[in-house]
Amino acid sequence: MNRSASATLFLRAPAEFLPGIRVLDRSDSTSEISLEQQIDQIEIARKHLRGLERRDWWLWWSAVTVMLLLTLAVVIVSLPDILRESDRIFQLNLNLAIHALVALVLLFNLYTVYQQWLIKRLRAQTATHLEILSRLRIRAEEFQQLATRDSLTGLSNRRLGEERLAAEVARSERHGHPLSVLLLDLNRFKGINDRYGHPTGDMVLKKFAERLNRVIRASDLAARLGGDEFLVILPECLPDRIPILLKRLGELQVDWGDEKLTVSSAAGWAGYRNGETPAQLIERADQALYANKRGAREEIPSVIPGAP
Fold it and tell me: With bands split at pLDDT 50, 70 and 90, how would you rate the model's confidence at 216?
């Protein structure tokens, strides 16, 4: 039986075969099953598989015990006839008793064989279930990445950035911890796209995102808002510490054939004020960004001919 046929058999198995485990249906949407639910389902399936193994051992030991007891019973019943000569009626009763015991042994053997077959079937179904759940878990992680990551740069996307900012603002509001946000905008990025093409522009964005990820702390979050705009959320950071971060970021040198592109960025930042909303905090940082851009128009991405 191939894998698809086994999966079909498992999906159609009645729920009582796998107690405590949710039987999947083809109409279920993978996107509707959270990663936490998939982990719980896998743990339940593994627990049930261990239960099947214990049941398997119990059946084997029960079979051995019953066989020994029935054999002992046959010996005890036959022993008087062996030790002394018995009459015809006693011999008939003895034969009937032996035949009854043999019949019981055969019935128990049939029951044991059926239970073994059922356990093997359930074990195969549980293994298939674990395989399906593992695939669903991988797909759930992929969906999570698509929902929270920017596909080009690998940074957090705008949605995750806004959610994290709202959470950090609420935390600062409750505990009074410092919080800063930093907005970055690549200078003259449109000129790079127009002159060198969009693939080169994409490469610049990737290189800039890699540099940005290296200079921020593990507790910080860098997100791409769109185009060449980036947001950095800096919990437990005062605004006067941001110039140190910008100094580490510096200018970006990108190799393009035999030339080298020097790309700079404009920055604007703001510290959280008590009672301020995330939108108001971003608005102040945005105003600072455009004020800095107006004062740094001479910082144009340049091309250094003949650079190695």
Answer: very high
